[in-house]
Amino acid sequence: xxxxxxxxxxxxAGGGGCVLILARDGEEVQQRVTASLAQHYYEPLGKAVEVxxxxxxxxxxxxxxxxxxxxxxxxxxxxxQAR
Length: 83
Known about the structure:
Layout: E1 5-11, E2 18-23, H1 27-45, H2 67-70
Antiparallel strand pairs: 1-2
C-alpha cells in the first residue's frame, strides 16, 4: 500500500487498459505512486514509466432540452394488424 492512495481500479483492460488511482492531492503522493509503479510494474517488464496526473473539476452541469426540440410533435406509433 502506498500512503495517500485511497483506491484504484483497472479500466479498459481489453484494449491494453490503464489503472485509475484515486489519491490525496500533493506532489509527494504522486512521487510515491510513481516510484511504486516503477518498482513493481514498469521496471520488471523493462518499460518506461508512464504516469499522468489528472485533477477533478466541476461537471458540465444540468442538461436540458432545447426549445426547438420541445416544439416538435410526438412521433406516431404504428401497429400492423393482420387482415
